[in-house]
């Protein structure tokens, strides 16, 4: 047993010393000193838009590699998709220490068998992409992103039409 009672001053001094030691040692004591960064809600929308754009690029590249077809039109449509990809990627959130870059930031177009890149398949891809833009518009929260998605979707619908599509 102790001969002398613990004073309030000694108790407060000990608590202050323990708190200082924990803070200086990097111990977070259960507190969030740096709360986690919340993911951008439009990042998933951008990821999906980039994925469909990359798929179109891969198919147009395969169609051009196969030869035949309307190469002038395919070249122009491929250029449109590449321009769309640049604009979509510009809007991806920058990577941070807490959040690495999304896969869409660096993904390459898929390798497509030239036999799978017919005019009919290109038309289907354009139609699917134009429909996907409508769904992405509903999920996007940033007005400028919505404008970009609407513009890209209109371009894809026009390209589908020029390839013989129903849109």
Overview of the molecule:
The chain is mainly α and 167 residues long. The chain has helices spanning 8-25, 43-66, 71-90, 119-139, 143-162. Residues 105-117 have a biased composition (Low complexity).
What's the overall average pLDDT, rounded? 84
Q: Could you give the order of the helices and strands?
A: HHHHH
- Biggest sheet, open or closed, and with what strands and sense? none
> Oligomeric form of this entry?
single chain
- Beta content comes to under 5%
DSSP, total strands: 0
Q: Would you tell me which CATH topology applies?
A: Ferritin
Poorly predicted runs of 5 or more residues? none
Indicate the CATH architecture.
Up-down Bundle
- Structural class, from secondary structure content? mainly alpha
Quick one: overall form?
A: elongated
Distance between the termini: 89 Å
Number of domains: 1
Indicate the radius of gyration in whole angstroms: 27 Å
- Count of helical stretches: 5
Tell me roughly what share of residues is in helical segments: 55-70%
CATH top-level class: Mainly Alpha
Summarize the model shown.
With 167 residues, this protein is mainly alpha-helical. It has five helices and no strands.
Question: Which key features would you list for this structure?
Answer:
Ferritin; 5 helices; single chain; mainly alpha
Lay out the secondary structure.
Blueprint: H1 8-25, H2 43-66, H3 71-90, H4 119-139, H5 143-162
Helix pairs in contact: 2-3, 2-4, 3-5, 4-5
